[in-house]
Amino acid sequence: MSITLDAPAKINLFLRVLAKEDSGYHGIETLFCRISLADSLTVGQVDSKGVTLTTEGEECGPAAENLATRAAQMVLDATGNRIGVSLHLVKNIPAKAGLGGGSSDAAAALDGVNQLMGNPVPRHELLQLGSKLGADVPFFLSGASLALGWDRGDRLFRLPALPTAPALLLIPPVGVSTADAYKWVDATRADAGRRGALALDLDALQSWGSIGRMAGNDFEGAVFGRQPSVREAFEKLVSTQPLVCRLSGSGSALFAIYRTAGDREDAKMRLGKKFGRVIAVETT
Questions:
Q1: I need a surface site. Which of 123, 203, 246, 277 has the fewest CB within 10 A?
Q2: Do residues 143 and 6 lie in contact, with contact meaning Cβ atoms separated by under 8 Å?
Q3: What is the pLDDT of residue 190?
């Protein structure tokens, strides 16, 4: 018996980095949005105990360190390690790009192993397990298309989905680790917790135009200052006149959202291959 699930990528329509806590983590405020680019995870039951992982596609590091492996083992541990599971992961989401690929794989593993066993772990407990793996994992587990996230990103408020829109991802030839990105933010400002007032209402989150006016990402200044190729790619992407254009997460992926599929195709042709890989996607 096996189960196959999609593990979609996300973009951050806005992202504010707040103060560094005593624990070493930072508070954030963000607007998560799912997109159509996705990994695929097949979960199967095997005779041997524990978790085995095979992969194809994008590089995702050693199996023992993979978040999907750790997530699957968490469910087995929570249910008495009664079975063993095999994971086969088809990677389409680039790593170190701020698109949440590893977190989405972990969410799919938590859900898939739980389904395989007859859903013995309640949904609220799966969310708690997910929060231990990464700040983005609860968003993917929630099933939301659009959600406000705060604290470490694991406190969520689901929002009505925005209209599906054509978008481009621009993946520069350099990656950015999340840990490095936070260090760079800390190095560039001493008062990360002192932010201006922000008041949101539902109307401001129901159209791409209004979101474009508030969009921003606190990682951009730090990442662009240390990765000139990412800054150059961003400037070129902005010149294609999208509704929204930002760095996603801690980078290095950039995204742009357009009014029409024709606008997106024109932008893709203008970008060419000079600035990195360009992937056409849709928001979901």
A1: 203
A2: no
A3: 62
pLDDT value of residue 131: 93
Average pLDDT over residues 168-186: 91
Q: For position 96, what pLDDT does the model report?
A: 87
Question: Which structural domains are found in the chain, ordered by start?
Answer: 2-158 (3.30.230.10), 166-282 (3.30.70.890)
Query: Does the active-site annotation cover 105?
Result: no
Question: For residue 34, how many C-alpha atoms fall within 13 Å in the half-sphere facing its CB?
Answer: 25
Q: How far apart are alpha carbons 39 and 51 in whole angstroms?
A: 19
Q: Which residues contact 74 (CB under 8 A, 6 or more apart)?
A: 110, 129, 132, 133
Q: Exactly one of 105, 136, 218, 263 is catalytic; name it.
A: 136
Kindly state the tokens that stand for 76: 């087995």
